[in-house]
Amino acid sequence: MNIKTIDLNYSSDYSKFVSFNYTKTFSVMQNRILSVGSTFPTFKKTAVVSIEKGKEFTEITSENIVNEDNQWTVMFWWPKDFTFVCPTEIAEFNNAFGDFRDRDTTLIGASTDSEFVHAAWRRDHEDLRGLKFPMLADTSKSLAEELGILEPVEKVALRATFIIDPQGVIRWVSVNDLNVGRNVKEVIRVLDALQTDELCPCNWEKGQETIHA
Amino acid sequence: MVQISETSAELIQLLRIENSTPEVLQILDNADSRYIRDLKVNVSNALTSAHISEKETALLALSIAANQKNNTLIAGFQKLADEKGATAEEQNEAISCASLLAGNNVFYRFRHFQQKESYNTMQAKIKMNIMMKPVLGKEFFELISLAVSAVNGCEMCVNAHEHSVREMGASEERVWDAIRLAAVITSLDKVIS
Q1: Which residue(s) pair with A213 in the sheet?
Q2: Among positive and negative, which fits the CA dihedral A131, A132, A133, A135?
Q3: What is the per-residue pLDDT across A138-182, written as a single tens digit (0 to 9) for each?
Q4: What mean pLDDT do residues B9-21 have?
Q5: Does B123 lie at the interface with A, CB-CB under 8 angstroms?
Q6: % pLDDT > 90, chain A
Q7: CB A138 within 8 A of CB A47
Q8: Least buried of B27, B84, B151, B182, by fewest C-beta within 10 Å?
Q9: The domain over range A32-194 is classified in CATH as 3.20.20.80
């Protein structure tokens, strides 16, 4: 059992789109976040990839994450579609899409909203129409729950970001409180630091074993 | 058309150079150069190896030409690589390998010169992902890496790649032929631009 005490003091702005407004300290039930070294849970979810009719949806599974092509995954979560902090952040991830792509990294956005809500939001919001990455719909909340990122009261996902290596192992996690935005540059910096770079045997010194990539 | 010797004409044909006669060759030709004859024989021999296939030879030559930024030789060896059945991906990788290794030679040579614990342990922060699953296969990619490093004069890179390619199964004869080819193309680069 992992009991944490969290002091939540949301701004009035935030209370506009969430149905609660804490000012007191309260105890949270078990909320064990899957962390570095853990295998990313298996899942099979629908994701929105387009606003074009008939091409909106695709299926994403954990099998896409584990691969032999050295493809990494960054999965970032937000609490709710149709809120204010989210589109800014999502647009920022989208602007950096090429930075992830060229680092052999699949970018996946996710929330506990359904694929239909995702699709509606993408159509509705100017900044989201040109999104290049899939929006995963964890409608049953099973993945967010297994990841330990379900906010206990609202049962929505915290602003969590996971970097997962090609073997499906979580290599970095960052979790923000509901209304705290993320720094995409930091995610890229960490990704760069995690990805093996010195594959060249020039790095080899006599007596060392050869590097096997 | 400028008058050139038969030897020069044959050399140009070997290198698949079309529509132009390199100027330096003309200078050498004017005085009936014995060197051109040596060079032609060296090129002809280097392009024929019992330990490196014709396709590999063309790709290795292409890679060294790219390392020397020699557009005339690059175009010629591309043609030769096409003839020998090398795919666009393989030619692409031969050129990419030269580009990456040229950088690595600078980078690691610095480390080797310095031999400081600090520089040896700092992260390189240079992406080398094409080394992971080369379409050319690891062994041949290593062989090209070795040849490029030899041309660029990085002692420890040469030692490291020689060790590595031999571990991957290359014979010393194969290594030797690759180095000879790299050397001869470096010679070519001085007279054909």
Answers
A1: none
A2: positive
A3: 999 999 999 999 988 889 999 999 999 999 999 999 998 877 788
A4: 87
A5: yes
A6: 50
A7: no
A8: B27
A9: no
Catalytic position from the list B12, B65, B102, B154: B154
pLDDT of residue A74: 97
CATH of the domain at B146: 1.20.1290.10
For chain B, how many structural domains are there in total?
1
pLDDT of residue A129: 85
ipTM above 0.90, yes or no: no
Kindly report, residue by residue over A57-88, the tens digit of the pLDDT. Answer: 999 999 989 998 889 999 999 998 888 767 88
- Let me know if B97 is a catalytic residue: no
Q: Of the listed A65, A75, A86, A90, which one is catalytic?
A: A86
Say how far apart CA A80 and CA A98 lie, in whole Å.
25
Count other Cβ atoms within 10 Å, centred on residue B113.
12
The verdict on residue B169 lying in a domain is yes
Query: What are the Cα distances from residue A14, in Å, to A11, A32, A111, A118, A178?
Result: 5, 25, 17, 20, 9
Q: Does A136 have pLDDT greater than 60?
A: yes
Give B-chain residues touching A203 at CB under 8 angstroms.
Answer: 108, 124, 160
Structure-block tokens of residue B88: 């666009």
A151 versus A212: which is more confidently predicted? A151
Domain span including residue B66: 6-191
Q: What is the value of pTM for the model shown? A: 0.79
What distances in angstroms separate CA B99 from CA A118, B33, B136, B192, one per listed residue? 44, 34, 15, 21
In a domain, B20, yes or no: yes
Residue B1 included in any domain? no
Range 171-190 of B in CB contact (< 8 A) with A:
none
CB atoms closer than 10 angstroms to residue B189: 18
